[in-house]
Design a protein that fits this description.
Two copies of one chain form a homodimer. With 202 residues, chain A is mainly α. Chain A has helices at 18-38, 44-51, 55-61, 65-86, 93-110, 114-127, 134-149, 159-175, 180-195. Chain A contains nine helices and no strands. In chain A, helix 1 (18-38) packs across helix 2 (44-51) and helix 4 runs parallel beside helix 7. The structure holds a DNA duplex (30 and 30 nucleotides). Chains A, B: InterPro entries: Homeodomain-like_sf, HTH-type_TetR-like_transc_reg, HTH_TetR, Tet_transcr_reg_TetR-rel_C_sf, TetR_SbtR-like_C.
DNA sequence: AACGATTCGGAGTGATCACTCCGAATCGGA
DNA sequence: TCCGATTCGGAGTGATCACTCCGAATCGTT
């Protein structure tokens, strides 16, 4: 899930130096902070400065800005997936599901690149199995299933619909952002829709 | 709503040349097409080429790329406002409101910069009165009010919440995009939430 | 301690972009 | 038709960005 201890998959690779590992972690942390604060258009040099490192070091570990962005996205989504997994043992499946949903949206309102990461994860839904955010989709799907079994969420929506709603809510929170009250009321509308009976009128 | 016939507000300005007016319109049209196709990161030169015009001409009419973007946004939002106004005379206020909402989202799924324009319009909600998208907010508010009077939309949501939902739905449609069925079902959830009773359980 | 391998740092490179400037082309009133 | 005013066109400018390259610094092993 984190950094490789040996370079090649052949097994006979050389051990990675300690400073290299440390710097890789620093760069990743700095990249998360910088992209959260200034958006994905922030320059690689900004990331390097924040990490206390030269640009060459950044590109050594992440050969492309796109690769760096993807690493940041994966880290965030995996962290969210871990949170979702922790909620699987909660008493109230409905509260667990809706609470997680709301938490993601709240985070998106303050962290700049989160909705982009979610969007990328959402895109992969249509494509196929693998790709960024697979863990999050699995964990969210489990939360959803449990909530549906408990009757807290209507049974005629699937994971793709939930992901679309989550991406939309997160992006709205990130770009409209400002008023937390408005955001909460808009989210309540979506939640009511998710609790509603499977469509009374065509 | 469109181009000024005279340059200054003093009233004694000189008339604008015909070719200047024609080129301004061409540039705006080209900008709309290019930004819809390639997003707001498309270069000014691309716009100029599409308009069959030099870059100098683009900058003559829109002194900044931001100004050009804003002009495109205003044009789109005003067009949407006109559509909304036309729906004010529809028989079924609920169908008019939901139909307009769905139409905006559908457009956002194919046109690239629309959700950005909507987001900018939504941002102004918190700020104050004037700004981009004022007309759209007025028209959408009227549609909403009529739908609420008819009992088609719950009475405890206001225009800010509706705008937030519209921005979120549009951005989700633009960025997740792909599957129209998923999009329709996710939108149906939001609509059910808007029809729901004003919150049965806290 | 000493040495070879690995990693670091950051000036340098080439590409791109928004924007400027001015001679050439065009317009429209006389 | 003629002429002054206005607009056009697009090469040029400066800034910024992703990415490269290589001498210097650091690591880990013997």
């Amino acid at each position: 899930m984190t950094a490789p201890r040996r370079a090649s998959a052949t097994g006979g690779g050389r051990p990675v130096r300690a400073d290299a590992l440390r710097n890789r972690a620093r760069v990743l942390e700095a990249a998360e902070a910088v992209f959260a604060e200034h958006g994905t258009t922030a320059s690689t040099e900004q990331v390097a400065r924040r990490a206390g490192v030269g640009v060459g070091t950044v590109f050594r570990h992440f050969p492309t800005k796109e690769a760096l962005l993807e690493a940041v996205f994966v880290a965030r989504l995996d962290r969210l997936a871990t949170e979702a997994d922790a909620l699987m043992s909660a008493e109230d499946p409905g509260a667990a599901f809706f609470g997680f949903f709301a938490r993601v949206v709240d985070h998106a309102a303050t962290k700049n690149a989160l909705s982009a990461a979610l969007a990328e994860a959402g895109v992969d839904v249509r494509a196929s199995t693998a790709g960024t955010g697979r863990e999050l989709r699995r964990a969210l799907g489990a939360l959803l299933g449990r909530a549906q079994e408990a009757g807290a969420v209507r049974s005629d929506v699937g994971l793709p619909e939930i992901l679309t709603l989550l991406v939309g809510a997160s992006q709205a929170a990130e770009h409209v952002g400002g008023d937390a009250g408005v955001r909460a009321r808009a989210l309540a509308v979506v939640f009511d829709g998710l609790r509603a009976a499977p469509d009374p009128s065509p």
